[in-house]
Amino acid sequence: MENKLNNKTIIEVTNLSKSFNQTMVLNDINFKLFEGESLAIIGASGSGKSVLLKNIIGLLSPDKGSIKINNEEMVNLKRSIKEKILLDLGITFQHGALFDSLQNWENIVFKVRNKEKLSNKNAKELAFSIIKHLGLNSDILDLYPSEISGGMQKRVAIARAICGNPKVLLFDEPTSGLDPVTGSLIDKLIKSAVKTVGGSAITITHDMASVCRIADKVILIDKQTISWSGTPKEMLKSDNAKIKDFIKSTNPKLFI
Ligand SMILES: Nc1ncnc2c1ncn2[C@@H]1O[C@H](COP(=O)(O)OP(=O)(O)O)[C@@H](O)[C@H]1O
Ligand SMILES: [Mg+2]
């Protein structure tokens, strides 16, 4: 699909394939993420969405293909250089992955604090300035991740990802398991995080309402590959059986 915003490519995935023990999970994946664009990746559970994201950030290596971030080839890149590039991304994993031994505020400001040598007071204020938009109050800042609920942990992980305004955001199911109100707060934050810094985002999600709120472009992964792509509007009108099933199963109200 053509890029309506501008032509700067932030992430480019070309001919990416990945198998585990001879089982092909991803086969010949191709897409681009442009500057200022918010991309949603949808697909059934087990279709390879998280594997794709893990390949992009180098937690897994593809068997074939290329992954470029800001024009830098990530596949087989020297670890130290790769880590530097990854430090500029805001990432959340499907299962939280907070640092258990750090208080929530320390988790949130982790990257920024190392870079900018903030005082504890300023760092905590920065953490608060983010979580207040996520329906969390300051009480949780001094607690440890194990002392707050799963939904709160998820929001702390999102606060950590967007702290410091990274220009590239990658979210794996940021709203799953959250109530609809919190989910919509998170969608707003993702959208404004992309808009404010002119950044780009990839969000993996099951939630069609979320897709419609945050995405400029949607790609569907099915049978190891990208079987459909388009705008949320096109998605709602699509005849693609998989897309229709998705919409029906997640938000019947959208399926009118
Ligand atoms: N590290 C791994 N080793 C072996 N198989 C894996 C590994 N990670 C994921 N898989 C398999 O790859 C497939 C896609 O997984 P995943 O990307 O997590 O799906 P989802 O689309 O739900 O995020 C699943 O069948 C999963 O079992
Ligand atoms: Mg997943």
Structural overview:
The protein is α/β, with parallel strands linked by helices. It has 2 domains: 1-88 and 167-256, P-loop containing nucleotide triphosphate hydrolases (Rossmann fold); 99-165, no CATH class. The protein has 10 helices and 10 strands. The chain binds adenosine-5'-diphosphate and magnesium ion (MG). Residues 20, 25, 43, 45-51 line the site of adenosine-5'-diphosphate.
Task: Spell out the blueprint of helices and strands.
Layout: E1 9-20, E2 23-34, E3 38-43, H1 49-56, E4 64-69, E5 72-73, H2 79-87, E6 89-92, H3 104-108, H4 110-116, H5 120-131, H6 150-162, E7 168-172, H7 180-197, E8 200-204, H8 208-214, E9 217-222, E10 225-230, H9 232-237, H10 241-250
Parallel strand pairs: 3-8, 3-9, 6-7, 7-8
Antiparallel strand pairs: 1-2, 1-4, 4-5, 9-10
The structure holds adenosine-5'-diphosphate and magnesium ion (MG).
The site of magnesium ion (MG) has 4 residues, from helix 1.
**CATH class category of the largest domain:** Alpha Beta
How is the biggest beta sheet arranged? 6 strands, mixed
User: Which strand order do you get reading across the main beta sheet?
Assistant: 6-7-8-3-9-10
Structural class: alpha/beta
Helix content: 25-40%
Brief characterization of the structure:
By secondary structure, the protein is of the alpha/beta class. It folds into 2 domains: 1-88 and 167-256, Rossmann fold; 99-165, no CATH class. It is built from 10 helices and 10 strands.
